[in-house]
Amino acid sequence: MSETSEPHIAAKGFPDQVGVMGGGRMGAGIAHAFLSAGATVTVVDINDDALEAARKRITKSVTGSIGRGAAGSVDEWMQRVQLSTDAGAFAGCSLVVEAVPESMELKNKAFTTISQASPKTVIATNTSSLSVSELADVVTNDVIGLHFFNPVPASKLVEVVVAKSTPEELVSDAQGWVEKLGKTPVVVKDAPGFASSRLGVAIALEAIRMVEQGVASPKDIDNAMVLGYKFPVGPLELTDIVGLDVRLGIAEYLEETLGERFAPPKLMREMVERGELGRKTGKGFYDYSGDS
C-alpha cells in the first residue's frame, strides 16, 4: 500500500458486504463462511457457466448448514448472494477475498481488477503459498492473507498472513473476522508456504517418496500418521483432496524459494501428467471412481 493511500474501509467491525473473486470450491466455501456470519456476499467469476457452478456449490453448502440446524432457510441465505461477471459489483464491499487459482499471474490480474473496481476496499488473498507482499505491490489497497482450508465450512483454521505493507490494525481486524466466522486465526508473516503449506507439503512430499520407493502402501502410510500422530486425514489422502496439480505447483514454488528439499518426486509429476489429480478426476493415490 502506498503511504499516501486512504485508510482501508473495513477497519472497524465485521464487514457486512463481502466480495469473493472466484467461485470455485474454495471461493464458494469462503462465500458460505461469510454468509453464515450474516454478511451479504458478491461472487464474481469469468462467465455465466462459472457463476452457475458457483451458485450450485454455495446452495449445496448452505443446504448442509441448514440441515445441521443453522437458523433460517436456504432461500433466505441465498437472497444475500449476488453473482456477477462484472467486478464493478464489488463497489461498496468493505472486504474482497481473492480466490482464483494458485498462479501469481492470475492473482495479480485479479488484484488489479478488484482495485480498479473498488480502490479503497481491503483485499484478502486466499493464496496457500505465494508472496502476499508481492501481490500487495500491484495495488494501493490494504492487503492481507486469509488462507482458508478445504473444505471451508468444516475447517476451523484460517492463516492470517501479514504482508510487509499490512497495517497493524488490519491484522487485529482480520483476527476478529476469523473468530466471527467460528474459526481460529493463526498469524504468520509472509514467508514461502507460510506455516501450514510449508509443513504440510514437506510431509506430503516425503509420503509420496515413500510410495515411490515401495516403503509402504498409501493406505498404510496414511494410517501411520492418522493413528500414530492423530492426523485427521493422512498426507496422501489430503493430497488427493487438495489436488496433486495444486500441490505440485506449491512444491515447485517452495523448491524455487526454499531449496531442493521441496523438489517434487518423479511419481508426483508422472501422476499429474497422467491426469491422476485426486478426487476431482476420480483417481489419485486412491480410487474415487465409485463416488457419487
Short précis:
This protein has 292 residues and is of the alpha/beta class. Helices cover 44% and strands 14% of the residues. α7 packs across α9 and α7 (196-212) packs across α10 (244-258).
Features:
292 residues, 8 strands, alpha/beta
Q: How would you characterize this protein structure?
A:
With 292 residues, this protein is α/β, with parallel strands linked by helices. 44% of the residues lie in helices and 14% in strands. The chain is built from eleven helices and eight strands. The protein has an eight-stranded mixed sheet with strand order 3-2-1-4-5-6-7-8, sandwiched between helices. Helix 1 (25-36) crosses helix 2 (48-67). The radius of gyration is 19 Å and the shape is globular. Residues 1-11 have low confidence and may be disordered.
Q: State the total count of DSSP E strands.
A: 8
- Topology pattern, helix = H, strand = E: EHEHHEEHEHEEHEHHHHH
Mean pLDDT: 93
Sketch the major β-sheet. 8 strands, mixed
Proportion of β residues?
5-15%
Helix content: 40-55%
Which geometry do the CA atoms define? globular
Task: Draw up the topology in text.
Layout: E1 17-21, H1 25-36, E2 40-44, H2 48-67, H3 74-78, E3 81-84, E4 95-98, H4 104-117, E5 122-125, H5 132-136, E6 143-148, E7 157-162, H6 168-180, E8 184-189, H7 196-212, H8 218-229, H9 235-242, H10 244-258, H11 266-273
Parallel strand pairs: 1-2, 1-4, 2-3, 4-5, 5-6, 7-8
Antiparallel strand pairs: 6-7
